[in-house]
Amino acid sequence: MIGYDDQGVAVGVDQASKLLEDIPNKVRDVLGMVVDVDLVMHGTLPTLHIHVPAYPYPISYKGEYHYRSGSTKQELKGAALDRFLLRKQGITWDGVPVPYLQVGDLQDSTMKRFRELAIHNQRLPETIREEGNPLLLERLRLTKDGYLKRATALLFHPEPDRYVTGAAIKIGAFGKNDADLLHHDEITGNLFTQVETAIEVLKLKYLKARISYDGLYRQERFPLPMAALREAILNAVVHKDYATPVAIQISVYPDKLMIWNPGQLPEAWTLEKLLGKHASHPHNPDIANAFFRAGLIESWGRGIERIKDACTQDGYPTPTWALEPGGWWVTFGYAPEDVTGQVTGQVTEPIQRLLSAMVADHSRSELQRILNLRHRDSFVTTYLQPALAAGVIEMTQPEKPTSRLQKYRLTEAGRQWLAAVHKPTEA
Q1: CB of 389 within 8 A of CB of 380?
Q2: In a domain, 279, yes or no
Q3: What's the CA gap between 411 and 390, in Å, rounded?
Q4: What pTM value is reported for the model?
Q5: Which of 10, 31, 169, 333 is the one with CA 20 to 30 A from 22?
Q6: 272 exposure class (CB count in 10 Å sphere: 0-12, 13-18, 19+)
């Protein structure tokens, strides 16, 4: 509406008759669309009303796309523009065809394993054992117009990062703050492999289980429930916004584990709606369908509920979710009894020897002499540095790491590890 002040009072517009002709022509020439312009009189004051119909496809202004949200306007670029254009066409990111990707490029062992899981979980019939890979991909709706979809590369190609930048999971162990990175790993491969490998690496290298005994039976309790962790990683992989070249990030601290997932909520959704009961609305429906057929996820939007239930049943704190621009965090806080015993790395055989030798505070040379090791560099790289990274020993003077008076001592986690290993078995 043209010719009104901010309060909606008509003030008139100059050259109204000329604008009646110019505006439709300019809109057609610049935007390629047709609008109606009406002259509306308020007494002697002429005003113009421009009627713009909702178009089923996006309209560009001189090659640019602009989006209005409330009272603000922003230009859409990059991944946001890709999502907008695909959504307007009724296409999801993982459903876009990929040129040059062929069935022969896919990993046959992964497809065979998928068949076994789908049959075992009764999500696909026994007949898929005898079907070729092309027919299986058609069953999963992973083909379009003779091409394989992006989801196919992520699910079954041995190196999906050749087609999708950032298709990986990064894991890092941190000290008390984000600047204190102890060690890290990057998990690549197809999405099924990423989930399984990430969980195994976390269990073996990053998470320390408290050991107890029930009679003759050894019991382990990790600082967070493995079922909930698995569900959270599955959710991150299935719902990740793969249009952004950023990997899923898992940060392990002495008192918590945090998962960052670059993703977007469905349009008009809030964090409250996400955390409440809701219908399944996967960001990547083709990827979600494959994981569902394999029996790895449900299709009822119960992922967050399953995470909460797993924590409650095993007596762990309920995790928290936080939405930020570009993605969201899920944070698992450890139970108080699990915090001090947390080891942030794998206790290898050399580390075990080193721990057994530490009856007091020792210098590097003293430890080498006790262990009868001659070569300094080999001792530092094989024994000392891995033990420091694992969090089982620490420097007596951390502010002066190269001091000639530097010694090393057991941490609380190291003492608990030794106590658990040397605890006698009950008869």
Answers
A1: no
A2: yes
A3: 10
A4: 0.66
A5: 10
A6: exposed
Q: Domain residues for 115?
A: 93-162
CA distances 212 to 206, 218, 391, Å, are 19, 6, 21
Number of domains in the chain: 4
Point out which residues pair with 149 in neighbouring strands.
97
Decide if 154 contacts 165 (C-beta within 8 A): no
Q: Is 364 found in the same domain as 270?
A: no
Say how far apart CA 288 and CA 51 lie, in whole Å: 41
- What is the reported pLDDT for 427? 40
Number of H helices and number of E strands within the chain? 16, 17
Domain boundary among 54, 88, 122: 88
Phi and psi at residue 4, to the nearest 5°: -130, 150
pLDDT band, residue 68 (cuts 50/70/90): confident
CA–CA separation, 100 and 150 (whole Å)? 11
Closest C-alpha to 161, from 80, 246, 95, 78? 246
